[in-house]
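Z., the sequence and structure:
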Amino acid sequence: MSLQSSATRFADYFVVCGLDTSTGLEPDQLSGDNLQCPPLDRPFKSKVLQHVPENVPSNPFDKTAVGMLCMPQGLGFCTQKETKRPRFHSFLITKEDGSRVFGSALTFYEEVRDTKICAAMQTLQHMYRAQPEDEHEEENQPSLQLRRSPKVTKRSSPRQSVKVFDSKSDTLYVTKCLCLITQYPFVTAQKEYLRQLYEAVEKPVKSHLPLECYVYNILFEVPLPQPGRSMKFYGVSRPVFTQRPISITTITHGVSELPLFDFSLWDLCRFLEVKDLILLFTSVLLEHQILLYSSDYQKLMTVAECINVLTFPFTWQHVYVPILPASLTHFLDAPVPFIMGLHHGREKRSELTLPSEANMCFVDIDDKTVDVPEDLPPFPHHQELKEELVRAINLYKVSLGKDSSKTPSPKKSGSNKEESTISRNESWTNMPERMEILNQSEAFAKISAIAKKTGVWTSIEEFSDKSEKEKDLEIKDSSSMGQRQIDHLKFNNMIREIFLNHFLHLFSSYETFVIQPTQDMESWLTNREIMQNFDKAAFLSDQPEGYLPFMSSFTETQMFATLIDNKILCHFDEVDPNLRVFDSRLKILRERLGEYITHTYSPCTTVEDTEKMLEKRVVYIDHVSLRPHTLEDLTSPASVETGFFPQIETDVLNVQITQQPSKRESAMWRRKDRSMQHSEHITLTSEQREKYLQDARLKHVRQPKLTDMSAAGMMQTNWKFVETLLQEIKNKTKRMLVEKMGHEAIELGHGDANINGVEENTMIASLCDMLERIWSHGLQSKKGKSALWSHLLSYLELQDCNYGNQCLDSNKLAPPVLHVPIRKRTRVQFMSIRSLYNCLCSNISVMSLSPEGLQDHPSQIKTHRRKGSTGRIELPTLTPLPSSLAYDMRKVQQMVDIRTDVGHARAWVRLALEKKMLESHLKELLSDADLLRNLYKRYAFLRCEDEKEQFLFHLLSLNAVDYFSYTNSFLNTVVPYKVLIYPSPKFGCSTTSANPWISFAGQHGETGVIEIPKGCLEFNVEHKNLGILTTLRIGHDNTGLTPRWLVEYVLVRNELTGHLYKFPCGRWLGKMVDDGSTERLLVAQLLPQHSDTYDLDLAVASSPPNKALSPNSPKKSPDSGSLSIPEIQERLGHAINNLVKHFYKPEKERGNLTYLLCGEQGLVHCLELVFQYGFRSSRLFRNKFFIWDYLEKVKQYFEGVLTGEVRQALSEGARAGYWIYCNFLLKINSATESVGKDGKFQIFVCVGIRDHILQKLLPLIASSPVTDQMYEENSFLRNYSHINYLVHILSTLEEFQITLESSLLRGLEI
């Protein structure tokens, strides 16, 4: 006998699971060792007793997986003293190709009448009670594991509370499960059908047909609802309704419906608060590890499916196990993103042991709490989303039950075993209060057991509050769906529309940034791993600032990449169903809001349209299935006995399923719908699907295989995890290098021309998450939320023990310091190399130096004095920083603004990455093999030698580029800076008799004025993180006998990151020398990092030449006389071009503007060359002249013209220009008394560029008679064509808004 294809049938299999009396009681080995538990609490092996039909070609029966998920805890036993309410839960099985099979299971208790089973249980009870009392106490110790969750420890319980079984006085009950296996999740209808089937056994009625008739009807006569249609079929006592949304392929215009979803979003809103729901939703989108925790299997399944469907049109691409069987708890060690549901029994949340929580979102459904990873970026428009969800909940609060406004209080430990219970009234979720009281009463349970045994009553339902009239209405054949079920469908529709509307606004223009391939499909599939399919840099640059933390991370996820891949594949093949719906909704949104949708959010408006289609479908039923009827071939139907589900006749139910449906059925039910479901995950043609499946089998990490739980299978799975991690770290490090190197990487052949431009902070945060996942793989035991930091602390503790608890303190290696108060609460420590030299000469070991010893000898604290007969001042020496792992760890531990292990681990990774020591530190950490063996299992990634070496090699490649991951992230951290001043050796390295001071600035602030003791050339400064240093200003008050001071350069080192900045000077400080300046503004040069003193000195000596003027020729640049006008124009063009490129870059990628203006080959330097070219020899004048002298003479001439002393015809425009110029120079002179002539010229250029007036003043300056007097005829300024070139090139900066550093103007209000 053959029937229609399974693609058009409502259900594929009917399954019965339970106790196999022929094999007896078998311990459930997959649940661990539970011999110390009371027998009634132990799990026993359950088996699939029956399943019909025998096989469905399109959906082969997986006996192991179905048996495991129908009864995840194995068989459960109890006596008549306990409540035995039935429980419902659904589950799913994910196949290798990504398609899913759904199951609905109803578990109930059935009396055990087999005397051998009762005798075996009695024997186990005697053996347990015969054990010594101390052995029972051992079971309460935290080291033992519970059978219900092998990852948690057992709670202690009083001895007298242990459940016992006495075969003489007690009745033994065991769990049995009825299950339907389907290819579509019609959960509500399946739940109702199984409930009625159970009622037919619990309260049999003579008028009922044999059970085989109802099973045959649901398997072979109830069809799969057609898209856009509703259907009514019949259970045992009343009809069951279901519906299916209309397919997108059949809609030509209007709003399309969302795909089928039959779980209750109302229950999700009851289980979690709205704010926690949004946090969980955000964690899922960013592909964190999601662990759901509940005592109810149906709650686990509901939350997992609901949160998954809310991500539409995106789909979860990683491990997805809503109900994690006890045999698969080792998958919690998996270093990959996952969504898993973990069942718990009597234990508390604090007793749960997890491998790592650094990147995990933990959801305790029973307690309504959600713990998310640190630094979780907020979802854009999360406040608007929260308000919309609250309005929707309030709208349906009344119609969906009195308990809808608030979720029942969390269950206590004693009631955790009460799961999704089934009442007999129409509303399962709202059991009457009277029934709840009776069910929770232990006394009533005992009375009920006696009453049932004597036949006084058969069920507690006789005490229900329902009237006879209401009971009659239940059995009545309704013609339409109940109002409560309709309201659930409407609420589901509204919530899904709200979430989809947010995605529509966020990705309204995503199609613009999709990069279409230029090759055929086969070539694209082959190379899609290395190709750039989406212009992320342009997309992110188009987002508001508040969106970037979330969007930059989300665009790196696999679910986003899959959507973009599907968008590209639609040009070769059929459009993905989810993408088709999303694009059609985008089209409607653009028609309503315009082609360009702003980033402001507008509330959802499509709910009413989709509700109309839903109401029309559920009110008027489209199809009524055949009623169950007597089967002609049924010769010996199963006899029903109250409370026992019999063994059904399988011969009549084992119908052969044909592969091809008839033409009539094919036209009616559209076989294409099933193929579309299979292709939802793959989105490939049939020719390419097999190749894709082969790749999936090779990777083998997307989904755990339930059928292979052997030791070899688990080992193979863990090796796959290791291989996947290694490939991921390889791709991530390469990606970071390409992103950092930009177009230089393209020239080297490491990518295509479309650089992603992902924010550097996002890439480094992703690297931190990757390291946490690697360190979490294969942990023996968990010590903190961060597995990496826990390993580091263990290593540091061992190092301290190895040194006899005398750890090397980096402060003991430092020279003595002198504390000097300075302004703005900045702490400074001045030190002398002389004191360290004296210590070394006295044969005192460096290791013995201590702050206490130095305090006992204050005379050792000296300033830099003259040395030897030559009278030279000893210069400060810069010693390298310690490069040990422990040194960096202690620096991170001293950060007061970080309080968590995860924060410490990420700060340490960022610091090591910036110092280019991440690979060496981790290599040192992993070199301790004994510690690794103690902390990690054999299969852990960190214990795989070859993979570990490759991992470190990939990290070493990151040293090729410079990261400021620590400097730019921890802006509130107090950073120690070491400052060393080097006077010029040409005058004996002499110091000044005046009172010197210094201040330096970075991208995030400046120190303010720091007063320096006389003769001191080396000191320490502690200040809030300044970021990357940019400028330094040094000066003095010009007092004393010899105030003038020739400074060669200044070094400043960040003592945390080791970054060394050189500030070249080479100029005099003092009046009546050089240009008369008593202070200089110096621009920073970042020197390469070196590990030893020799390389450090070499780097300082070989740094680029001074950017300032030469001390021998103060009014000339070293190369000013040798350059020609074309060469000056070329340098000027490069300087302007660098400024233009600076402003065209994204703001976060811009460099140091001060360096482009005042640094080497900067704009100020190039304009100096312009003004100095053709300058008349100073021999013609009495005193030396500077450029500022020329500008002053021009000012005097302009003032004479304005006052009438000099007669000259003047236009209104020229008069205004003269006045602006004179006023400009007057402000500079009055505000900068201590600044020399070259410093004033620097301010003149910078402010003129900022205010866009320099190019307007230059023609007026060049046309004055002063220019003819002070410049030769072939000079730059006397050639009008050159002046026009200068004006034209400076005009290109007018479109930019230039902001100068405060340190550049030193607070001047100009």
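The chain has 44 helices and 30 strands. The mean pLDDT is 76.

Let me know what you think.
H.
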